[in-house]
Amino acid sequence: MDCLKKHFFFVGLTITLTVACTSQQKKKEANIEQPSNNFAMNEKPQFKINKSDEEWKKELSSEEYYVLREAGTERPFTGKFNMHFENGIYTCNACGEELFSSESKFDGHCGWPSFDKEIKEGKIVERVDTSHGMKRIEILCGNCGSHLGHVFDDGPTDTGLRYCVNSLSLDFKPAK
């Protein structure tokens, strides 16, 4: 009889945990469906800076172009800003727009520079990204539309956010 009680206890516990996890996953997916300033993947919003692919190719290295304009990703733990913790401002490597303060940077242990908030609301634009069989929120420079990385809701600070950014998408202005 004790064995039967234990069995039902574990079955009940398994069902409870499954329901809780499913509920959490649906909540996360609902947030992904509606990023704060979203637009559809195939929609092209208007940015202040609009250049042709040819113009971008002349200004950026092939690696920078791949990440910034083709939504590529650099290999983890290879970027120059991953473990960079000087005081200053991180800017868009394509247009120079100020994006993140060093005060919001933290070690995300993910292999890419991590920040918990943008420097000022509207500097980052979000859109749903369903590439590679995943559902994520892509982040773009609000000034020129360059791909920066993705934002996740697993950050360790009070914002709960982790802006996971390619080093190739960034430049840095040290504090004076």
Describe what you observe in this structure.
- With 176 residues, the protein is an alpha+beta fold.
- 27% of the residues lie in helices and 23% in strands.
- It is built from three helices and nine strands, in the order H-H-H-E-E-E-E-E-E-E-E-E.
- The protein has helices spanning 2-33, 53-59, 62-70, and strands at 88-92, 98-101, 105-106, 114-115, 124-129, 136-141, 147-152, 162-165, 170-174.
- A six-stranded antiparallel sheet has the order 3-4-8-7-6-5. Strands 2-1-9 form a three-stranded antiparallel sheet, with no helix packed on it.
- Strand 6 and strand 7 (147-152) form a beta hairpin.
- The termini are far apart.
Average pLDDT, rounded to a whole number, is 83
SSE succession? HHHEEEEEEEEE
- The residue fraction in helices comes out at 25-40%
Sheet of most strands: 6 strands, antiparallel
Distance between the termini: 74 Å
What's the shape?
Answer: globular
- Tally of strands: 9
**SSE-based structural type:** alpha+beta
Compute the CA-based radius of gyration: 20 Å
Which helices and strands appear, and what pairs or packs with what?
Blueprint lengths: L1 H32 L19 H7 L2 H9 L17 E5 L5 E4 L3 E2 L7 E2 L8 E6 L6 E6 L5 E6 L9 E4 L4 E5 L2
Antiparallel strand pairs: 1-2, 1-9, 3-4, 4-8, 5-6, 6-7, 7-8
